[in-house]
Request: fold
Amino acid sequence: MTNYAKRIDKIVSTEILVVGAGSAGCNAAIASAREGRKTMLVERYGFVGGTSTYILDTFYGFYLPGKEGRKVVGGIPDLILDKLKQRGAMLLRPNTYGAGTGITYDPETLKVVYEELLTESKVDILLHSFVVDVLKEGNRITGVIVVNKSGFLKIEADIVIDASGDADIVALAGLPFDGIGSHEPVQSLTTTFRLCNVDNEKAKTFTKNQMWAWMKEANASGKYWLPREEGSVHITTLPGVMATNMVRLSLPDPTDIVELSKAEILGRRQALEYFRFMKDYLPGYENAGFLNFSTQIGVRETRRIFGEYTLTREDVLSARKFDDAVVECGAPIEDHNQTSSTVWAYLPEGETYQVPYRSLIPKDSENLLVAGRCLSATHDAHASVRSMGQCMAMGQAAGTAASLAFTQKKAPKDIDIKQLQKTLVANGAILNLRQEEPV
Ligand SMILES: Cc1cc2nc3c(=O)[nH]c(=O)nc-3n(C[C@H](O)[C@H](O)[C@H](O)COP(=O)(O)OP(=O)(O)OC[C@H]3O[C@@H](n4cnc5c(N)ncnc54)[C@H](O)[C@@H]3O)c2cc1C
Reply:
């Protein structure tokens, strides 16, 4: 606890506090509030959705890759899909390869869909608010300090869910973490961008491999700077609008803000280079206009907590099941490492591994959970489990668990797991649980 305490202008209290309104945080807050808990959601930007609304437009992880393409995420995430569908703001991009079928949505509509669900669930939403410190008594987090234009606010909470992506609360609480600073470099960063006025029909006349060959050719000509000679461009819910995932930048620590600032600038420069290439080389893009950069550069990986269990590459590739499973995942390991190509490794066809609840509980914590990309997983396992479908499912699990911990007056690590799983399944979550042994 630092000297912020001297400057506190206001104190509020809540039962469950969720920090970060991305895929994990929004689902955690909705789950907790729907279980009847007084829930507050704090977000540094002026809108919700996190990476799903400020960088991306396609949920992966809902469907398995492979012939069967089974759906493995449900519950609150389905309510989100229903609302997107009702507004005509969603389409399926069937895929048996890559990360499986993607659900492409309009990110602006998704902001409103989340706002509606959060409001209907009676979540207290605090936007434009950055959590800068935590208050602790022993291993217990008693609250956080938030800074915003109104001043310094203290939020007291019974249970805190760190859904900041970067495990900010874990770091501020002085708990150890992996990821940045460990022996393996974190995944690369990408500024996404969207183009308008593309001729959709003409754009169908070339393959991804052809585009990659043209990228190589353009680089070899010495007239272009395309650090990643692959990447993708895809249709969106809007005619003539295409979205890309092409830019690649490497940083040893994306939480180093000086370096991140440089990366933002370089990322936009790189994006404009790819745009120039696309206009010059790709059929259908001759008259394309540059619509927008992502609100900020996309950060795939930073801090990963040390949890009660750490998910591993072997767990992923052997489709391992756990007694305390709370999420199913069949997404391959998709490592956008810091070289020019992405490395893929698949689970056996049609299978899933499970995320154990323990991966959401930071070691040595009493009333803290995490959800989303900062869970406890090795670099490789993280490269599979970080898809938005799984982040949403982790959020649902953490929000439900926090509510149970509150009502059972227990630490999150001591709650009744069977009760948690029962509640999740009753609320639509997809979990293939082992049958109870007959007594
Ligand atoms: C370039 C890129 C491409 C990707 N492509 C795909 C894809 O196509 N499909 C897919 O499914 N997944 C994709 N992923 C992965 C996926 O998007 C992320 O793993 C996932 O969105 C993470 O969700 P989250 O809720 O954990 O974190 P985030 O969505 O990052 O949410 C964290 C939230 O916390 C807020 N926050 C952070 N710190 C604080 C603080 N101190 N105080 C207050 N608020 C704070 C942030 O503003 C943000 O809203 C991609 C990721 C990147 C970067």
About this structure: The radius of gyration is 21 Å. The chain has two domains: 3-184+301-426, 189-299. Residues 189-299 form one domain. The longest helix spans residues 257-281.
